[in-house]
């Protein structure tokens, strides 16, 4: 598939997913949050992860905050991303509470900047996704931050995308820069692709 076709298909799929997510009821969202939190806790525990990289979810993404609260109470080291103008991610440990609006209006933690290489020391990376296919190919939201980060790592720990049920599909459009994930966490399951 040529790059223009893949890019166009991605835009259309992202719009469809955004609309579906915005139409979730409060009850559906609460149930999804409970399932995702339970599965993220199980995954982290099963991997004996002591240090994780995760993101602060937006209002239409699966809610990662209850999981992050659990991680803080367990004494895990949690790195949170800070978007940079050059397309890379800085990281901070933040305080688990204080947030600000980052680039593109996305929520970001407030804390000491640790630089892009801080992620090299984590045991588990949890990334956002619009969709993931049966081979583990991840389609993000189009800015490429996580693709650049994952593509630049020499020794990458397990990477799991978080999404709603129904966003695990047979195939997503892919471009050369896209990076696969090892698994996906939904409200009802933990899928592994490796």
From TrEMBL:
Q: Which Pfam families match?
A: 5-FTHF_cyc-lig
Keyword list, A-Z: ATP-binding, Magnesium, Metal-binding, Nucleotide-binding
Known Gene3D superfamilies for this protein?
Answer: NagB/RpiA/CoA transferase-like
Write out the GO MF terms: 5-formyltetrahydrofolate cyclo-ligase activity; ATP binding; metal ion binding
* Needed cofactors: Mg(2+)
Q: Which residues bind ATP?
A: 10-14
Q: Which residues bind substrate?
A: 56, 61
EC number(s) stated in the UniProt entry for this protein = 6.3.3.2
For this chain's UniProt record, which GO biological process terms are given? Answer: folic acid-containing compound biosynthetic process; tetrahydrofolate interconversion
Q: Report which reactions are catalysed by this protein.
A: (6S)-5-formyl-5,6,7,8-tetrahydrofolate + ATP = (6R)-5,10-methenyltetrahydrofolate + ADP + phosphate
The keyword Ribosomal protein is assigned to this record = no
Q: Which domain of life is it from?
A: Bacteria
The entry sums up its family as follows: Belongs to the 5-formyltetrahydrofolate cyclo-ligase family.
Descriptive protein name: 5-formyltetrahydrofolate cyclo-ligase
Which species is the source of this protein?
Leifsonia poae
